[in-house]
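Researcher: Predict the fold of Lipoprotein.
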Amino acid sequence: MRSTVRRFVSVLGAVALLSTAACTNEEPGPQASGRPTVPGPPTTRLLYALSQVTATEENKRHVEFTDLAALRRVSNGRPFDRRFGLLAVGAGELAGFAERIAQPTGIDLSQATDALVTGSTSGDAGRINGPFDAKTIGAKLTGLGYTPVPGVPNAWAGASEDGLDADDPLVKLGVTASHGLNVVRVDSGEGITYARQRDALRRIPAERGSGSLADEPAHRAVAGCLGTAIAAVLLVDEPQPHPPNLVGVGVTSGASAGDLRQIMCVQVDGDAAAAVRTLQRTLREGSSRTGTAWQRLLPEATVEQAGDGMIRLTATPAASAGPGLLIRALIVNDLPRWRG
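Model: Structure tokens for Lipoprotein follow.
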């Protein structure tokens, strides 16, 4: 949880740097609405993104995802605007300097279809899917002082991996020194994987295969429960003395910003029916840590069982709450509770 909070603060800082972002108003590609419970081909962009991430213990703990194409659509081409900042969690710190790096590096987030970040703060790995070209980006990075990574095709490294470097070529462009673009691998026509450390590139291999997060039953079930999310965070919730639960929160796509809905899905360890009743009571009688009643924040919320051991909350947040209410609540450990 601690590393997630640090990244959350970074995302807020990145959003604060931007009042607008000049991105193309690109329509997302076709999206299936299936909610698979067994391994198979990915049917949503979230599941596809999870299929790119190896199922290491650290990667399982949390993932942040954004469908940038869909976010551009509902935000009228301004995905990194302050109002939608939390929905850009999958872009991590890149959201704060997207325009600044686009021309010098060739890493142009306005061309990306979706983005994902996973891992601990020091070992973060990120993925930007889109039609990027290794030759073009490699030439630009080389011009900035990046050097090829031995043994890794189409990968380049910038500053020292041991700490922040005043000679970092991106820092000289005004990018924050904690950025994750120290090591960049370009899979031409498919996307870019980036990290602070070279070893972290292995979290998101160049070719998808078995043993990914999409093959993990709990992650696949939670992602399926969330459906066609614009943004999502999957996090292992471990309050002592309770067993851990995998929790996913997301925002589903709509025709406009006013159509966005919040979803929370939890793979519970015990009686799902009892968890539904507890969550309903929390929404009816409880309050967030801000002191505001959940009934005011999430009016007309519905809670249901959504499969074996799965509970789902669906709601349209109050206008004052903002579209990233549940994402913020998950990251700061302030979700409405489903445990007694």
